[in-house]
Amino acid sequence: MSGSEVVIVGGGVTGLSAGWWLARSGVKVTVLDKFIVGWEASGRNGGGASHYSSPLFDEEQRLWPQMDELLGYPTEHQKGRILIAMTERQWDQYRFIAERHTRLNHPVEVLDVKQVQDAVPLAGDNCFGGVHYKFGGHANPQRTVQAYAWALQDLGGKIIQHSPVTGFETAGGKVTAVKTANATYGCDAVVVAAGPQIPQLMAQLGVDVPLAAARAEMIITEPAPMMPLGGVDGHKIYGRQTLRGNLAYGGGPHEWLDVDATGPAARPSTPLARNLAKRLAELLPKAAHLNVIRSWAGVIENSPDGRPIIDRLTSPDNVVVASMSSVGFGLSPASGHAIRDLVIDGACSFTNIDLLKLSRFDGLEKDWREKRGWMPIA
Amino acid sequence: MDLNFTGTDVCAINGTRSAPEAKYDLVVIGAGPSGIAAAIEGAANGASVLLVDENPVSGALMGNDTPLYFGGRMTAATQNSDRMLEAIFMSMPDLEKAMEAGVELLLGTTAWGVYRNGPGVQSLPEQVVGLADAERSWIVGFDRIVLATGARDLAIAFPGWNQPGVMGAAALQMLLSRYGAFSGRRIVVLGSHDLALETALLAKEHGLDVAALVEVRDDPQGDAALLAKVTAAGIATYYGQSIAASKGGLDGIESITLTDGTNIACDTVCVAIGLIPSIELVDAMHGPRALNAARGGYIPAGEANVAAVGLCAGLPDTGFDHVAYRMDWVRAALRVNAPDTIICQCEEVTLADLIGIQPPNYLPRPAAIQARSLDTLLDDGPANPDQIKRLTRSGMGVCQGRRCRDQVAMMLAIESDKPFGTIPLASHRAPVRPLPLKILAEWDEPAAMDAAWDVWFGIPTQWVPVEDIGTEYQDAHREMLYTGMYK
Ligand SMILES: Cc1cc2nc3c(=O)[nH]c(=O)nc-3n(C[C@H](O)[C@H](O)[C@H](O)COP(=O)(O)OP(=O)(O)OC[C@H]3O[C@@H](n4cnc5c(N)ncnc54)[C@H](O)[C@@H]3O)c2cc1C
Predict the structure, then answer these.
(1) Which of A254, B197, B299, B312 is the most exposed place for a label (fewest CB within 10 A)?
(2) B139–A271: do the CB atoms touch at under 8 Å?
(3) For chain A, which residues make up each domain, given as ranges?
(4) Mapped to the 3 state alphabet, what secondary structure does B23-52 carry?
C-alpha cells in the first residue's frame, strides 16, 4: 500500500499513533481533527500505561520503553507502578491482583509499609502495604500526543487541524473521500478514530457502533519532591507524579452524557475535585499540604463491555474503526500498530484481536444503555 | 460472565454529591467598595446575603504572588492574620455597615469555583460556589451571584524581573493603604497612565522615595491633572524608555538601567502598566466574556444570575486603549530581554524556550524538537496559549499563571503577527486559587459518594485479563473487585 492515501478522522492518540505507524510504512497519511491534536481525552487523561486486560498488552509493554527514541520526541515515559492499600479490603483486593499477575507471569512484588515508603516517600504509616508492578508505567499525555503528531509530520504525514469531518463519499463498496466543510480528501482507506463521535460518523456509513460517552475528572497539585516511583495508584484513585513533581490524580464517579456530532460542548470539572483531594491526601498524607492548582475533565466513550473496538469493516471494506473504550492512552503505541496492520494487511500481525471485533455486539439489545444505566441525567 | 443489569449504574455520579451547606439569595464575592455596595443593596431588598473576601490571605500565598503581585515586599506584619483582619476593618468602614444591614460577612474566605449545570454537566444538585478558609472548604448554594473580585496586576518581564522587589501596583497599593506593610523604600514606577501616576503619588504620600517614573511611549499617557501633581512632587520621568538591565542582591532588586543607559538605584520596581479584571471565576465556570480594550482586557459579558461589578466588570472607560498600550510595553520587552530571560517564574520558562516551543529543562531536547518552534507550530494553525502551556509549561505553576498569562498571550500575538484579540485566552481552571489538598478535601463526604467510587468506570468486563476470559478466574475477578456492581 506504499504511496496510497489514508485519511484518519481524529487526532487523538489513537488516530495519531495509527497515522505514525502508517507513515512509517510509506503510506501517505492525512489526519483531520476538528480542533487541535489531543484536545479531547488524549490530552486530559491520567497517562497510565499498564493494560494487562488487553490483547494489546504485550505490545504496549514492548513499545513504551522505546517510544521516545522511535518518535524522536520525549513522552516522559516512566516504568513501573505501585498500588497502595489504604483499607483492609483494598489490601485483600490488591494482593488478589498481585497473585493474578504472578500467575500470568507479570512481575510484581508485594511490599510492606516500610518498603512502600521507600519507594513512595509521600506515603504514610496509615497504609497496609503495596503491590509494585515491575511492568507498565506512565507518560505525559500532552507531550505524547504532540510527539506522535510531530513524528508523523517528520515522516511526511499531514495534520489538518480545525477541520471537522462532516461525511464521506462512497463508491463500489469503498469510501473514496472524506469531507469537511471546506474540502474533500480523496482516499484509499479511512481510519475513524474520533472518540465519542465515532457512532455519528459511522452511522453515515450505515454502521452501528454502540458507544456511550461520559465525563471524568482529574486534579493536579503543585510539584512535590521527586519520588523514586512516580506511578502511584491505590485507594481507588489513579495517577502519576509528573517529571516536574506535580501529582495528577483521577478516579471516582463518572457522568454519562449525550455527545452530538460536533463533539463535547464543554468539559467542565465539578466539586468532585474535593473528593479526589480527600483520597489523594489519604493515599499520600505527606503531600496533604500541597496546593491543588488545577482541575479538569475529559470525555471518553465506552463500549458495552468496556473493551476497545478495533476492526476493519466488511462494508465499506476500506474503513477501520477504532474506539479505545476509555482505556486508550497507554495502549496507543500498540493500537496504532494494530490499526496499521488492519489497514495494510487486513489482519493484526502481532496478536489476536478478535476480542475487539465490532461483530461481538451483533444482536445487542437496542436499550443496552438504559439496561446498564449509562444514560445522561435527564 | 452473566451480568444482570438493573438499569442503574452504581458507579455513576448521579445523586452522590453533597448538598450545599447553606443557601443564600445572593452571594457576593469580593468585599471591595462595589462588592460591599452590592451586598448592602441586596440585604436592603430583603435578600439573604453572603459576602466573602479572600483577604487577608496567608503569608504563604502572598509569597506566591497570590492574589496580587506582591514581589516579596511584605513586612513581617503580613504574617499576623489578626492584625491584618483588623487593618481590613479599619480601612473599610463600610464592612460594619454591611453587617449592620444583615449581610453575613466572611473574610479570609476564598471563592475558588462556581459550578452549575449546563453543557457537559447535569449532576449538580444546584448552582454552588466553592469556598475555603484557612481550615477547610465547603460549598454554598445561591440564586444570584455578584462577582466583585476586582482587578489584579499585569506583569511584564524585563531583565532581572524575577527577583524580589519587582511587584504590581495593586499589590503595592494594598500593602501601603490597607496594611501599612510595605518593606521597600525607594521605588521606580513603570508606566505613566493614571494607574502609574496614582501609584507614584500614593508612594510619595506614604513617605517613600519615588526614584523615577518610566514610560515606554514618547509622551505621558495619563490624566493631565495627575501628571501635574507628579511633576510638582519632583518625580523624575523618563519617556521612550524601558528597563534594559537590572542589578540585584540577596534582598532583590538594587538598581535598574534604562534603554538610554541611565542607572537608577531602587529597591522596588512597581509595574504599574495596567490592571487585569479578575475574571478567573467567570472563565473557570465557562461564563461568557468579551475583550474590551478600553476596559482593561477580557471582561465578563454578563448573563442572568451572574453579575460583575467594580473593576472585575472592567476598568473605567476613559477612551484609553489599554491593550495597545500594553502591547507597546511587550514589544519593548521583546526587544530588550535576552533569550534566557525567565518569562514563567514558577516553571522557569525562558523567552527563547517559550518562542521556541521547547520542553522544560528536565526533559531531553533531541534534534527533532530543537527544530520545532512557534513558527512550525503556526504552520498547523493559529497559536493557542493552552497548547503552548502544555508544551512549554509556561503558566502551569503554583501562581496559576498570574505572573505570565497575560504577557505570554501578548508575546504570542506579536510573534505570530496577529492582533491580540485573535489569540484565545489561556483557560482558567478551578480552584482559581491554590488550595492545599487537605483544605480542598471534602472530609465528610456523603456515604453515597464513597459507595459509587470506583477507580475507573466499574465495568467488570473491562479489566479481566484476556487470558482469564471464560475461566474460573473471571468470576473470581468480578467477585473480588466488583462486588455490588450490576448486582
Ligand atoms: C480523566 C481521564 C483519565 C484517563 N486516564 C487514562 C489512563 O490513565 N490511561 C489510559 O490508557 N487511558 C486513560 N483515559 C482514556 C484515554 O484518554 C482515551 O481512551 C484515549 O485518549 C482515547 O484516544 P482517542 O484518540 O481514541 O480518542 P480522543 O482522544 O477522544 O480523540 C478523538 C479525536 O477525534 C477528533 N474528532 C472527533 N470527531 C471528529 C470529526 N467529526 N472530525 C474530525 N475530528 C474529530 C476529536 O477532536 C479528538 O481529537 C482517560 C480518560 C480521561 C478523560
Answers:
(1) B299
(2) yes
(3) 5-72+141-209+305-366, 78-138+212-302
(4) EEEEEEECCCHHHHHHHHHHHHCCCCEEEE
